[in-house]
Design a protein that fits this description.
Length: 602
């Protein structure tokens, strides 16, 4: 802050500098009867100069007018600054001045307040009074006293924090008490990792606010200072948080802190390591990295099945089933989900039973068995109505909506999507809203309400753009392309398909790229470019990584294309298509203006 210069300046002029004014304002706040004499003002000017105009340093110095004269405060800071300038404390001048203010304030604190303040340095990103009481035994009177002395700050929401430089200073004080530091860090880890078990409407919001403390607690636990069983207990809820917030890569990296500290050859590590690997597998699945998800889930299950207690195996089978589903291996997916369902029933875990029924419903929908899919969804939903959390209930309403769409009952589907959307907004379940909007949009599409469908799907796309959810972004872009096609807006349709293909290519998922290319072929057919569609479809049918369910869709489009050209033209077109590789097809479709080159039928 602007402060009087070192050279002589009149006291009248000195009063107009912001640094001096801040000292006087804070001093009057600390002691209502405080008034400035000419002698006091000279000491105040010198204090501001010694502290280099630092607002924090000035505030810390001013609060001590409660018990000291301005002259005594000046003397204390001068002594601390002289001490810091000795050869053993070679600090830059600016740091020396603020450090002097800290030392001055620290020395005047009662021993208990010193202890509390240094232990509060284990918190990152602030803390609430309940956490301070639980972790360091801080009472409200002590916290209030530290706030009065400008050593803590309190927000209107009741959350405490402190200046970053003061945080750094108190961390140094705690480091000088290693046993105390270890105990406090352990208390901090238990308190914040236990928050991961919270459920209910406000749980996600609480975890959002406390994420810095949670990550600090996890990092300390992963470093090997905590019981390995804590890593196992909290791996699943930690992974679930990152999943629900669509922060997949961040979750993978956070879990990896602990994975690297555990050994597959150590029997006591198996449960924790297995759970961590399974959670990493699930987050990789959400990113579309299906092969990596499968590898991690298999490694995790191997560890979990070798544990004395069989906790966590259902989740491992579920992740392995999801990976198989993503890879298009539906028989394997059904096998894993059915095995998980049987184990969940044997354990009496009704929430997990509901989850596996939902997984099986998803497989049936993809396989084209809408009746069986709807049966599974109804069973899952009934269980969640009785035993699930609000979040799980909304998930089941979403699932039931999509099952009704597959069963060609859009009006019934709309009812479930609308109920789910209302609950999601009431409870703040933002991660579930895009899929519900998508479902409502698609019911509108099926009912011929294209304007409403476009508006809902655009809203869903806006919510998922920019987060770790590229696969859903591809799906929404394709959805908008199909809506635009139905409206006759072919330019918009091609633009959306181009965007979808670019995002799909960025995911490094060949299956997603192939699926998007199939919709390009559908668009070519809409434009009357049957020969070009045969080229693209011929490539997709022979590609070694095209899953069977995509081949089934490809064959249906191929039948439509071949009905519009002669067998010879179709055969030559498919041969040309097979001559290109995947990257060449991506470049070709992104550079081609299908609208300009369309061949109208007849």
């Amino acid at each position: 802050m602007p402060l009087p210069p070192e050279e002589a300046v009149s006291l009248t002029d000195a009063q107009h500098f912001e640094a001096v004014q801040l000292f006087i304002t804070r001093a009057k706040r600390a002691r209502l009867t405080f008034s400035t004499t000419t002698k006091d003002l000279s000491h105040i000017v010198r204090i501001c100069q010694l502290l280099g105009g630092s607002p924090l340093g000035i505030e810390l110095a001013a609060v001590w007018v409660k018990i000291m004269s301005v002259a005594e405060i000046h003397e204390e800071i001068t002594q601390n600054l002289a001490f810091l300038k000795t050869p053993t404390r070679n600090l830059p001048k600016r740091h020396q001045s603020i450090q002097a203010a800290f030392e001055h304030s620290w020395k005047l604190l009662p021993a208990r307040e010193q202890e509390v303040l240094r232990n509060l340095s284990v918190f990152t990103g602030g803390f609430r009074k309940e956490a301070a009481a639980e972790v360091v035994g801080a009472t409200i009177p002590i916290l209030v006293s530290l706030v009065d002395k400008s050593l803590l700050r309190i927000s209107p929401t009741g959350r405490f924090d402190r200046h970053p430089l003061l945080y750094q200073y108190t961390r140094g004080k705690l480091a000088a008490h290693p046993k105390e530091k270890t105990k406090t860090q352990a208390n901090h880890a238990v308190y914040y990792l236990t928050l991961l078990k919270l459920t209910g409407a406000e749980a996600l919001g609480t975890l959002d606010v406390e994420l810095e403390n949670i990550q600090t607690a996890w990092q300390w636990s992963a470093a090997g200072s905590a019981n390995v069983q804590d890593l196992r207990r909290f791996a699943e809820p930690l992974g679930s948080y990152f999943d629900q917030r669509h922060r997949y890569q961040e979750g993978i990296d956070t879990l990896a802190m602990a994975v690297t500290k555990l050994s597959e050859s150590e029997p006591t590590h198996r449960g924790a390591l297995g759970t961590l690997l399974v959670e990493q597998g699930w987050l990789n699945f959400q990113l579309g990295h299906f092969d990596e998800a499968k590898r991690l889930a298999e490694r995790g299950l191997e560890q979990l099945k070798n544990c004395a207690e069989k906790w966590g195996i259902v989740g491992g089978l579920s992740t392995l089933g999801a990976a198989a589903l993503g890879l298009g291996d539906f028989d394997q997916a059904q096998q894993h989900f059915n095995e998980a369902l049987a184990l969940a029933k044997a354990q009496g875990d009704l929430q997990e039973v509901a989850r596996q029924l939902g997984n099986l419903a998803n497989v049936e929908r993809v396989l084209g068995s809408p009746f069986q899919g709807l049966r599974y969804s109804l069973e899952s939903h009934a269980l969640y109505r009785q035993h699930g959390t609000p979040f799980e209930l909304v998930e089941s309403l979403n699932d039931l909506g999509w099952s009704n769409i597959s069963f060609h009952k859009p009006q019934e589907a709309r009812k479930y999507f609308e109920e789910g959307l209302q609950l999601a907004r009431e409870h703040g379940f933002e991660p579930l809203i895009p899929s519900l909007l998508d479902g409502l949009g698609w019911t509108c599409y099926q009912l011929g309400n294209y304007d409403d469908a476009r508006e809902l799907c655009q809203e869903a796309l806006a919510l998922i753009s920019g987060i770790d959810h590229s696969l859903d972004e591809v799906k929404m872009l394709i959805r908008l392309a199909r809506i635009a096609t139905a409206q006759g807006d072919h330019g918009e349709a091609q633009a959306r398909l181009n965007q979808g293909l670019q995002v799909a290519w960025s995911t490094r998922s060949e299956m997603e790229v192939l699926r998007t290319l199939i919709y390009f072929a559908e668009f070519q057919l809409e434009l009357g470019c049957a020969e070009q569609a045969c080229e693209l479809l011929g490539f997709a049918l022979q590609h070694p990584n095209t899953p069977q369910w995509i081949k089934d869709r490809t064959e249906r489009f191929m039948e439509k294309a071949e009905a519009r050209v002669s067998p010879a033209v179709s055969a030559k077109a498919q041969e040309r298509g097979r001559a290109l590789n995947l990257a060449e097809w991506v470049d070709r479709m992104l550079s081609q203006n299908l609208i300009a080159s369309q061949k109208l039928p007849g």
